[in-house]
Amino acid sequence: MSSATKDPSLRNRSHGAGLFSLDQFKEIGPDPVLEAGVLVFHPETISLGRNVYVGHQTILKGYYKNEMKIGDFVWIGQCCFFHSAGGITIEEEVGIGPHVKILTSVHEEPPRSIPIPRSPLQFAPVHIEAGADIGVNSTILPGVRIGRGAMVGAGAVVNKDVPAYAVVAGVPARVLRFRPEQ
Q: What class, spelled out in words, does domain 20-107+120-178 have in CATH?
């Protein structure tokens, strides 16, 4: 039996359907495109800049404690999952490929006598600077800052900061090179 069925306070709780209207966002710039199947939770904590594109089936999971700020001309591919419990900032002109996950919380590692889902959460923000590109199926872990113009390769797991203009890939992601100046 899972811990959710043992504890009556955890049974039958829902985060809602994720349905929204644009006027529920904290701020929203002109000309947003949110494709069919996009789910948004706590839209009152989410700001979208000008000309933001959000692909089909993406989940923007706002959180009552922190904010998700998505800058102008950001492109987010389909089937992404952003959880902003620790806060997410995505600056302008960032490209984010399909199936990317951005996480801002993690359970503390408890002693063996405590089930992991019952351990306290630790929160840490994610910040993606202007002009960066996040490859398909990458995962950005809590507390990471991705520098201006950096490129994250497909399938990478980013667990530490990425310098500006670096090209990173792998699990865990590591710097392969820096983008040329010209």
A: mainly beta
